Structure formats: C-alpha cells, structure tokens
Amino acid sequence: MNGPTLSSHAIAWGSYPERRDLHDGAALRDLWRSWRGRLERRRAGPMPTRHAHAIAATQARLAHAEAPALQAGLTEARRLLRRDGLRQDACALALGVVASVMQRTLGKTPYPTQLQAAWLILQGRFAEMATGEGKTLAAGLAAAVGALSGAPVHVMTANDYLVQRDRELLQPLYDALGLSSQCVVASMPREARVAAYRSDVVYVTAKEVAFDYLKDHLTLRGERDPLLLRARELDGAPAQTPVLPGLCFAVVDEADSILLDEACTPLILSAPGTSIDEVGHRRAYELSGALQMPRDYWLEPQRRQAVLTDAGRQRVTQAVLGERGVLHPPRRAHELVEAALAARMLFRRDREYARTRDGIALIDEVTGRIAEGRRWTGALHTMIELHEGLAPSAPALTAAQITYQRFFPRYLQLGGMSGTLLESALELRWLYDGGVALVPLAHASRRRWLGERVFARASQQWAAVVARTREMAASGRPVLIGTDSVAASQLLSRHLQRAGIAHQVLNAVQSADEAARIVRAGQRGAVTVATNIAGRGTDIHLDADVRALGGLHVIACMRNRARRIDRQLIGRCARHGDPGSAERVLSLDDELLARRVPAWLRRLAAAAARHGVVPALWARPLFGFAQRAAERADRQHRRNLRLADRDAAERHAFAGQPE
C-alpha cells in the first residue's frame, strides 16, 4: 500500500470505495515489492524525530489545557486531516491531540511505543509489537486519527468477545472526539449491520467483514463502479443498499494470524445444495476398508492424501461394475475411495476435527479453535462424517467465495500489528505491499529462557512436563502449557489429574469464557493447558505476589509450523517488564517431525538418546529442518494461490471481479 493513499475528500472515493485489482505489469510490481521488502527487512522503523517531537510537544501543550483549547486543537487536527489526508505532519498533530484526549477520558497516557505503532499503521505499515505492550490502545489511536480524516475505519480483531470488549473500552475516547463507533458481531441482522457499518469506527472480525463483502458482491451483481451503479438506477433498476460503505481503512490486530496463517482459507458464501447420494458414498467407504497398503494404495501425509495404485484402481473398478449414481464412471469411484482412505488414515478426531452436537467441525491448525462455518471440499467431509458414524450432511453450493489474501489488498489503506511479524516481512510486502517495522519494548524484557529438551518418546515428554509443572506450581508460580492439538491437551490433562495437579484446559473454544480463563492463568499456583495460542488477544495479568516469585512460566510442548508462532506462545510470559521464564519440552513423536522427517532418521535419533533425552546435536537439526520445510511449503502455497487468483482474474476480466 505505498504509503498513505486515502484521499482527503470522501467524494473522491465513490459510492463503494475500494482498491481495484490491477493486473497490467503485476509481475514487475511483485519484483519491486520483493526488493523493497529486502531493503526494509528487520528495520527498527522509528518515526522521524521531528514528528516524535511534534507529538510530544502537542501532548505537553494540551496536558493541562482548558476544554476550549483542547477543542481548538481537535478542530485544527481534523481540518488538516480532511485537507491533506493521512500525511505525516497532519498525523503527528492528530496523534498528539488524540493522546491528550485519551489521557483525559480513559486515564491512560499512551507510551511512546504505542504512539509509534499507531504512526506506522497510519503510514500503511505493519508493526511488530510484543505481547502485553498495549496493542489495543495503539489500534485505538490509529483508528481515531483515521476516522478524523473522514475515512470509515474497520478495526479487526480475533473474535466477537474481543470486538465488543475493545470497542467498549475505547468508546469514551471516540465519543469525546465526536466520532461514532459500533461493533459488528455474528448474531446481528442485516439492517443492524448496515447501520453499524455507517459509523466512523467499526470493530469487527475479519470473517464477518469479508462475508459482508461477499454479500454485497451478490447484491450489486459484482459491480461496484459508482457510475455504473448510478446508471442502473437511472435506467429504472431498483436501488440496492450494500451492507458495507466500501473498503477504506483497515487496522488488523494479530495481523500474522489473519493475513498469513488464514490467508488461503476460502471464505464461502453458500446456498442450499441438493441431497447427497448416501448409498454410493457408504459403498465407497466400505470398499476403502478392504484395501491394503502398500498393495492397493499409498499415503502422502504432508498433502493429507491417499493415492490408489494400479492394483487398487483395478480392485475398485471390479467392485463397482454395474453400479450407477455417484460410483459411475469408475474414475469417480476411485476419487471417493481415495477420500475415504484419507478420512480413515490421515485425519484424527480432536486434532484436525472435533465431533460436536452439530456434526463435524474443523479445528484451525494454528489456533486450536473450532473453525466456524468451514468444511472440507470434495467428498472428504462426507467420508469423515461416515467414519464418525454420522449421517452425511447435504453439501452446500458455492454462491461466492474469497480468501483474505485476495480481500485485504482491496482496502485503500491497510495497516496492522502483531507480536511476531519480522520473519514474514518479505511475504507481507509481496502479498499486501506493507512494510514491517519493529516497535521497541516500553520496558526491558526480564524473560529467562531455560532451553529445550527433546525426549525419545512422548511418554517421557509428558512425565517431564508433569514434573516441571509440579515444581513450579508448588513454588506458587503460575504455569501455561501450550500443546499442538485438542487431543494432546486432553492427554496432558489426564496426566496432570493422575498426578493430583489442579488445572484448567483451554481448547477449541472461542468465547468470553476463554478470555476469563486466560486472565485467571496469572493467579498464584494456577496451571493452564492451552491448545497452541488459545486466548491470543487477551493479556495474562499476574497477581502482585506472583511477580516476586518469578512470574509466569511457559512450557511449549511442540514446535509449530512457523517459528513466529512459537514466539507467540513464549511471548505470553514476561510481558511489559514482568518477570517470567519459558522452555520447550518435546519428543521425537512430535507431529511436525512425523510429517516432515523420515521414520528411519527419527529412529536413529532415538537410539542416540541418553536417559531418554536426545542430544541437541541430533534434535536441533531435525526440528529445524522440519520447521523450515513447513514454512517453505506454506509460503509456496500462498504464492501459488496468489498467482492462480491473478490468472483467473485475467481470464475472466470481462465478467467483472471473480468472487
């Protein structure tokens, strides 16, 4: 997003402002973005000194000013922003004024680091800001300045609870600035959404706003050009009110999770489909149970696919001779049987999916939460339902779909923040044309890293985790234990129960209860088992006496697919100058190793173990290779999707945007 792009006048944006897809010269633009990203990589990125001084001077001038003087400063800031847009001088003055109003209304004086993060967002960049450094207030500062310029601002956060919490926290600030604010949550009807989106600042999840955008695509029949929409009205076509007023300015919290980890997940607006051929699918599932590996099929765990051999295809073909419906022709039967084999062999309950009252629910691999509204494509979802003994649900037809990777570049201005962005700076520049800058800590870190231990077997790993947890809890220190799946969290919970260690478990939950539990994780002697980064977006506050005991201790029981996600979990301790410590306790049975490292190599490493502990000379290269391979695969997947989207858009350009 090459710097601030918002016009200073709303009339210039049209009736549905958004950045249009550009395809001419796209390859050259991508090359330029890559080079810019390399030049900016790991840059501290402080704001220019003169602007930092201007903000501080404005705060000092207004610190004890009477209400009329403060109002005059606000009027001048709004005038400059409306005239010049989000230019640096105007943003500096506005940030100083907004910071002064924040201190009066919320009783919170923003740290210079929070002002710096807000500055970066207003310049269309992404700020790496450590956990506990006040991202909520930084987002509020940026949103307030953006809204004072006249641009509708969408502040996106992790879930509906945080949407409502953050808006409620900052509403007094927006009211004092003369700005309207609302939140949009999943339960809101269309009429309420339309009204809420007309506010100056809207708090909403990324999923909700993307789905509302898709609904507008259908309502407006894919056309959002203001002149053509006006021409339709003049031609007698009924006026259609879109849900959104357009895509002007987005502030994205936990930007790496939304813009990278969930970048390729299709958001599908569905229409009722036809009933499924249950008999045919059951027949294919039964056939898969009679096949043998490696004679009839082999598995590709990394791609989570099963592939029939020539012998397997012949057996399936012979078994379905004379069949009709979904098993005809035989090629279709082969696809169904391969999906059934994958459901049997490669997908596990409480790891890739959960069984709920409503049927099968996918689990987000990164967060460990239920992925609401998602289902696997093709026959896989049906086969997993049959594998779980459930009646297959009717498939839904796709009315429109989009990915975050395609949606977010359509904002005229895009900025955000997260605790872990530097590792992905090049990719964020390439995908979203947004540079990454590091915001320094407001207080020096007091975190102690206790190292990494790798055991030969999972049973030894869990025994070590229980022992360390007992030791820490007995001393009064709270413990947060991160696992990579619902199944692992439940297994560890059973080990802790047998050891008589009281604890709470967070897994596959997305609610206010989750936030309440993660807050309690900082109490004296508390033990919390969480799936991966459950509770992300909610601070763990320590009891006063816990600080004296050494703070929160984090135990990571996995290596994630990306190193930055590992940093997210470790970053839950020693926040904002508090004491804390962290360590990793792993085993060679780790899921990441199982997918990326050959079994014979893991056996060699296990043979080198001394008293159950694998030497670092073996363990570090194995986990490092597996993690780098997973990161490369994820990056390549996002790149391939970007190129495929571009090709599809060019082929169908005559039909409008291909959602």
Secondary structure topology:
Layout: H1 26-40, H2 49-62, H3 67-84, H4 88-106, H5 112-122, E1 126-128, H6 135-148, E2 153-157, H7 160-176, E3 181-184, H8 190-197, E4 201-205, H9 206-219, H10 226-234, E5 249-253, H11 255-261, E6 267-272, H12 278-289, E7 297-300, E8 305-308, H13 310-319, H14 330-345, E9 353-356, E10 359-362, H15 380-387, E11 396-402, H16 404-407, E12 413-418, H17 425-432, E13 436-438, E14 446-455, H18 458-474, E15 479-483, H19 486-498, E16 504-506, H20 512-520, E17 527-531, H21 544-549, E18 552-556, H22 563-570, E19 579-587, H23 591-596, H24 599-607, H25 616-651
Parallel strand pairs: 1-12, 1-13, 2-4, 2-5, 3-4, 5-12, 14-19, 15-17, 15-18, 16-17, 18-19
Antiparallel strand pairs: 6-11, 7-8, 9-10
Helix pairs in contact: 1-17, 2-4, 3-4, 4-5, 4-6, 4-7, 5-6, 6-7, 12-14, 14-15
Description:
The protein has 659 residues and is of the alpha/beta class. It folds into three domains: 10-261 and 404-438, P-loop containing nucleotide triphosphate hydrolases (Rossmann fold), CATH 3.40.50.300; 274-394, SecA, preprotein cross-linking domain (Pre-protein croslinking domain of SecA, Alpha-Beta Complex); 446-635, P-loop containing nucleotide triphosphate hydrolases (Rossmann fold, 3-Layer(aba) Sandwich), CATH 3.40.50.300. Helix content is 47%, strand content 15%. It has 25 helices and 19 strands. It has a seven-stranded parallel sheet, sandwiched between helices. Strand 3 (181-184), helix 8 (190-197) and strand 4 form a beta-alpha-beta unit. Residues 1-5 and 8-12 have low confidence and may be disordered.
